[in-house]
User: Which sequence fits this backbone?
């Protein structure tokens, strides 16, 4: 299969690209805008790996560019869209880029899929398969129990609202044009190569530097933690086996409260729990996400990594790859860190 992977230079997209090239005979083209969150370093080795290099290509570009998407989708059998702004805290500071990529970007991709599918169908060819990578955050918080694929959406942050908007657009194209579209809703993902501003990498790299770990509010918010390779393989299962038009939850059933996660990181590094510093809560902070995963289990997928093994492997990766993450903690990072945490840490020191 000729696969177009949008946003493939980011955290999950690069893991997906790597695993797809290893496990299948697919040709993979990554298109990525290389925002602050994306990096060619995440794809290093693929262009020199003899088993992959002839099947791998990279194009720097924006998914909101209609002409480019038309050209790239025209050379593909299937598209998996990872491209998005992905950090809730940044969406609270400024949501503009979230909407641009999450709505206008998804629209440009869908238009390309529609045009290319129409052309192929008119000559008895097959539709372009499109998988939109979405998130459990579109459901909003669940106090108890789990979210099912057919539940109503209650996004509560600008990030999750942009993701829900993208999903609704995908569903509208399915209903209106009968395209071969699918949606995945993944749980909180962790593992190697996640940007250092996200919870787990931030806490690991701060702990390595003996800096405070800024935990929001009471630290009792719960997330289901899914290892990145499991998430990538779940998306692969949906691409290969998923029923057209369906939505699939991808979760690990590994719920932990944030304070437990922070403590697991400190234990793995042999650091004191006193580094955990309570700071002012995130606005509109969702308390808990949890999903039912029976639908994707019927495709033969289930998460393989347990949280204890996964967090130990992740801590070790960041310990071994300081050059990878130190370049991300640069001048732009300092400005973001100051804006997000400066006043929080100052306020916490006063109490
Ligand atoms: P990430 O921020 O690490 O990667 C996003 C990638 O998209 C980056 O490489 C970036 O350069 C690229 N990108 C952004 N805007 C673009 C544009 N307009 N055109 C082309 N490329 C663009 O994010 P991630 O954590 O790898 O998440 C990937 C996808 O998975 C996102 O859609 C996210 O909503 C979803 N998701 C993430 C998680 C998680 O916990 N990280 C959980 C569930 C779902
Ligand atoms: P995050 O990685 O932003 O994912 P989510 O999209 O689920 O919010 O954060 C995971 C959890 O960690 C979330 O409950 C917010 C919390 N958190 C902190 O307590 N401190 C931090 O500095 C960050 C970035 C997150």
Assistant:
């Amino acid at each position: 299969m000729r696969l177009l992977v949008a946003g493939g230079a980011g955290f999950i997209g690069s893991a997906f690209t790597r695993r797809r090239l290893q496990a299948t005979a697919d040709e993979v083209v990554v298109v990525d805008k290389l925002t602050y969150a994306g990096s060619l370093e995440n794809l290093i080795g693929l262009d020199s790996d003899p088993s992959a290099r002839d099947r791998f290509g990279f194009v720097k570009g924006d998914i909101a560019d209609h002409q480019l998407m038309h050209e790239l989708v025209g050379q593909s059998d299937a598209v998996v869209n990872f491209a998005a702004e992905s950090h809730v805290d940044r969406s609270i500071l400024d949501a503009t880029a979230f909407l641009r990529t999450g709505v206008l970007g998804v629209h440009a991709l869908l238009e390309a899929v529609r045009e290319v599918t129409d052309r192929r169908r008119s000559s008895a060819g097959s539709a372009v398969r499109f998988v939109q990578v979405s998130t459990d955050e579109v459901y909003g918080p669940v106090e108890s129990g789990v979210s099912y694929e057919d539940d109503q959406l209650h996004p509560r942050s600008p990030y999750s609202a942009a993701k829900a908007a993208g999903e609704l657009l995908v569903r509208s194209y399915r209903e209106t044009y009968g395209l071969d579209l699918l949606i995945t809703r993944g749980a909180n993902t962790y593992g190697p190569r996640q940007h250092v501003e996200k919870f787990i990498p931030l806490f690991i790299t701060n702990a390595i530097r003996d800096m405070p770990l800024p935990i929001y509010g009471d630290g009792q918010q719960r997330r289901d933690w899914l290892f990145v390779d499991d998430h990538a393989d779940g998306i692969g299962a949906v691409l290969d086996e998923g029923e057209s038009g369906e939505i699939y939850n991808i979760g690990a059933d590994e719920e932990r409260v944030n304070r437990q996660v922070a403590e697991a990181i400190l234990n793995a590094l042999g650091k004191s729990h006193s580094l955990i510093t309570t700071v002012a809560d995130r606005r509109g902070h969702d308390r808990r996400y949890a999903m039912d995963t029976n639908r994707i289990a019927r495709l033969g997928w289930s998460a393989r990594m347990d949280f204890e093994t996964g967090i130990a492997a992740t801590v070790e990766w960041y310990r071994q790859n300081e050059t990878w993450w130190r370049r991300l903690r640069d001048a732009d990072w300092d400005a973001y860190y100051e804006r997000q945490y400066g006043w929080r840490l100052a306020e916490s020191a006063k109490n």
